[in-house]
From TrEMBL:
<dbReference type="GO" id="GO:0010181">
    <property type="term" value="F:FMN binding"/>
</dbReference>
<dbReference type="GO" id="GO:0009055">
    <property type="term" value="F:electron transfer activity"/>
</dbReference>
<keyword id="KW-0285">Flavoprotein</keyword>
<dbReference type="InterPro" id="IPR008254">
    <property type="entry name" value="Flavodoxin/NO_synth"/>
</dbReference>
<dbReference type="InterPro" id="IPR005025">
    <property type="entry name" value="FMN_Rdtase-like_dom"/>
</dbReference>
<dbReference type="GO" id="GO:0003955">
    <property type="term" value="F:NAD(P)H dehydrogenase (quinone) activity"/>
</dbReference>
<protein>
    <submittedName>
        <fullName>NAD(P)H:quinone oxidoreductase</fullName>
    </submittedName>
</protein>
<dbReference type="GO" id="GO:0016020">
    <property type="term" value="C:membrane"/>
</dbReference>
<dbReference type="Pfam" id="PF03358">
    <property type="entry name" value="FMN_red"/>
</dbReference>
<feature type="domain" description="Flavodoxin-like">
    <location>
        <begin position="8"/>
        <end position="192"/>
    </location>
</feature>
<dbReference type="InterPro" id="IPR029039">
    <property type="entry name" value="Flavoprotein-like_sf"/>
</dbReference>
<keyword id="KW-0288">FMN</keyword>
<comment type="similarity">
    <text>Belongs to the WrbA family.</text>
</comment>
<dbReference type="InterPro" id="IPR010089">
    <property type="entry name" value="Flavoprotein_WrbA-like"/>
</dbReference>
<dbReference type="InterPro" id="IPR001226">
    <property type="entry name" value="Flavodoxin_CS"/>
</dbReference>
Amino acid sequence: MSNAERYVLVLYYSRHGATAKMARLIAEGIEKTGMPARLRTVPSVSADTQASQPAVPEQGAVYCSEDDLRNCSALVLGSPTRFGNMAAPLKYFIDGTSSLWLAGSLANKPAAVFTSTASLHGGQESTLLSMQLPLMHHGMLLAGLPYTNPELTETRGGGTPYGASHHAGADGARGLDKHEAALCRALGERVALLTQQLHAGAAHVPS
Ligand SMILES: Cc1cc2nc3c(=O)[nH]c(=O)nc-3n(C[C@H](O)[C@H](O)[C@H](O)COP(=O)(O)O)c2cc1C
């Protein structure tokens, strides 16, 4: 597979749009490296887990297919924080990936995570860590954000070494500030560069 055919999947759930904004900034960071980003979302789930929405979303990213996930070169996974954890629609989607797990389809691929919260200390880090757990079971190579990004120490909003985060405020009206936005772009760029370096290195390993 050539670099042109590779893509980083940015897979997220967003009910009110804050996590979706982060996804678009992460995609900007990925595409800065010359690698395509593929933005995908997941449908909401109803109490009885039956489909409650049209098969194609009315706006924004389309729903993620199994092939979108199987064929990605890397994954950046995003969710709003819900009670300190990822949102059920994303967890529901991930719980349906057993066949990819059995086949090892995601093993040895880079991955990273991002989240948005209403309150500043409302569980960003616990959510990010919880999102990393299934990715580790899939054998993915987790990337966080290093403190060489100055925004990590300067931020008065979101931004963690475990992944990108955003404090959207109680009414969701607080936009991404410059530090949060820079860290979203940095995370996307980091995952894309790691992916390219892994593939370049693999090309030099004798078979
Ligand atoms: C059921 C539920 C639980 C939530 N739990 C938390 C929480 O634990 N901590 C927090 O700060 N915000 C919490 N929120 C708020 C969302 O995380 C926040 O509004 C987020 O920015 C929404 O992202 P979105 O705009 O992408 O949907 C919760 C929201 C809902 C609906």
